Amino acid sequence: MKTDKMGEWRRTHYSSDVGPELDGKEVTVFGWVQEIRDLGGIRFLILQDKNGKVQITIHRDKADSKVLKKAESLQRQYSIGIKGVVRKMGKAPGGAEIIPNEMRIFGVAKQPLPLDITGRTRADIDVRLDARVLDLRREENQAIFRVQHAALEAARSFLSKQGFMEVFTPRIIVSATEGGSALFPVAYFKREAFLAQSPQLYKEQLILDFEKVFEIGPFFRAEESHTRRHLSEFISLDIEEAFATAEDVMKVLEELIHNVCKDVTGNCGRELKLLKHKIEVPKTPFKRFTYDEVLEELEEEKIHIPWGEDIPTPAFRLLGKLHPYYYFLTDWPTKAKAFYIKPRDDNPEISEGFDLMWRWVELSSGGTRIHSKDLLVKRLSEQGLSPESFKHHLQAFDYGMPPHAGWGLGLARLVMALTGIRNIRDVVLFPRDRFRLTP
Ligand code: ATP
Ligand code: MG
């Protein structure tokens, strides 16, 4: 089918601008045909653009013959332009419709589409992800990413106001940051390199110069487990701060969550309505539970975890039922935490590491870092890592490394908390897991 050129046509209004107050005014709108309803004498088109939907009404007996002919050839998902006149119409979405004078068809769509773009017939997640750009036509799905955008804006603005500077650290690295497993190797010219699992080592080094840094970017982990909260590529929001302790950066984290929730609630009313989700803006300070308190609580529920072990998923699910809100878990056993987390001075068995939980899902991990080079070397060895392969990182500890602390927050998991969506694959545009590398 021959398509039209855009030529000198430019959009004058988005669907969301078309309301009864424009009655009688000529507008040019662009978008995609979401639905076509034929009532014999009248043909309704629902035109969808990035802001929403607007009804285009074509009266068979009154419409221009060219418009009529084009309207008959339309199919779902065609991209079109309409020049027409707005008419007040109580029954139409937005309280107005457009009566077209001219129509241009810019792009056609192969029929049948692999998905119902209205979302009325729900498809399996793999079918949806295989045709992700079509799946993202659904307003509910777009809403997720608008919430994410608002959350990122809020986070960036909050951290900047707190004096943190945004930085970018390498994604191609030579040694593991979180231990040797779960690394993706890459062929780097004639050497082996890896994709970074986190910005941990670099952000710690950078506090020597900038004191307060943050980074938002993708990191990579070859996660063997196939869960609803792990992907092999995820966006992490990280901070690191000089002359600070775990408690100091926990305060930054809870204030950040509070501000993000507040801003998203304020700016994403339409999106949250589409998602049928209400955000409860959490009050600060968040509750803090120690590892020992949680073990006791689980014991009462007949779940026994030997001291020092990580908390397994079923136990976390139970904790989430007992604590359906944001809370911190503190005082983790040193051996359950990464090598760079500082053991407590009064009891080295216990660390200054913490996790931020939302119900049963871990959103963030952080802590006071070790800033003594000798202790760091000792901890590396204890965890079976070779200090030799960390020599460039260790070098920074010879240059007056101050006490410091920080955390890393998984963006997708935060968006799950903000939207109530349960599968991480739904809140990532093009998710990557063990079984999915396309589209
Ligand atoms: P988990 O125990 O859930 O596997 P982790 O403790 O291994 O997470 P950290 O190294 O603490 O993860 O990373 C900090 C944050 O980054 C996590 O709290 C989480 O929000 C996010 N994150 C880590 N791994 C993944 C992943 N594979 N997919 C999505 N987000 C992740
Ligand atoms: Mg963690």
- CATH superfamily label of the largest domain: Bira Bifunctional Protein, Domain 2
CATH classification class of the largest domain: Alpha Beta
Give the bound compounds: adenosine-5'-triphosphate, magnesium ion
Q: Approximately what portion of the residues adopt beta-strand conformation?
A: 25-35%
- H and E string: EEEHEEHHHEEEEHEEHHEHHEEEHHEH
Give the terminus-to-terminus CA distance: 27 Å
- Overall mean confidence score, pLDDT: 96
The strand order across the widest sheet is 6-10-11-16-15-14-13-12
Count of folded domains: 2
What structural class should be given to the helix and strand makeup?
Answer: alpha+beta
Give the overall form.
elongated
CATH architecture level-2 label of the largest domain:
2-Layer Sandwich
The CATH topology of the largest domain is given as BirA Bifunctional Protein, domain 2
Helix content: 25-40%
Q: What is the number of helices?
A: 12
Q: Rg, please?
A: 27 Å
Low-confidence stretches: none
Largest sheet properties: 8 strands, mixed
Molecular structure report:
By secondary structure, the protein is an alpha+beta fold. It folds into 2 domains: 15-107, Nucleic acid-binding proteins (OB fold (Dihydrolipoamide Acetyltransferase, E2P)), CATH 2.40.50.140; 135-427, Bira Bifunctional Protein, Domain 2 (BirA Bifunctional Protein, domain 2), CATH 3.30.930. 28% of the residues lie in helices and 26% in strands. The chain is built from 12 helices and 16 strands. It has helices at residues 65-73, 125-130, 132-135, 139-161, 200-210, 246-267, 269-274, 291-300, 313-322, 373-382, 391-395, 411-419; strands at residues 26-38, 42-49, 52-59, 79-88, 96-107, 165-166, 172-173, 185-188, 191-195, 212-220, 233-242, 287-290, 326-330, 353-358, 361-368, 404-410. It has an 8-stranded mixed beta sheet. The relative contact order is 0.11. The model has no long low-confidence stretch (mean pLDDT 96). The protein binds adenosine-5'-triphosphate and magnesium ion (MG). Residues 355, 362, 365 line the site of magnesium ion.
